[in-house]
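Database export, one record per block. Field names are fixed; values are copied verbatim from the stored entry.
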Amino acid sequence: MSVLQPTSDDFFFFAGLYFYIEATGRIMGETASLESPSIQSNGNATCMVFYYHLYGHSIGSLRVKVGDQVLWQLSGNQGNSWYKATVPLNFDGIYRVG
């Protein structure tokens, strides 16, 4: 796990976009979901790379799934740092990452 220390939102400048979900004041059991467009794969090895910041006592879980298969998951407070995650996506055909 690589630890990164962004000094501002400019940390994500290279990607152009980021998602933010405020955990403070949420009700236990609430969820937020993001889903990729359909991905066409011929079975070649590929991966999804993203950065995450799971900080605070209200943090639940962050999961990467294809269908019902959980490919990556982390739960709870991970400290006030940014981390890089790399998730292998070794699928053949059309699929969506959620």
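Remark 1: The mean pLDDT is 81.
Remark 2: Strands lie at 2-4, 39-42, 47-52, 61-66, 69-75, 82-88, 92-95.
End of record.
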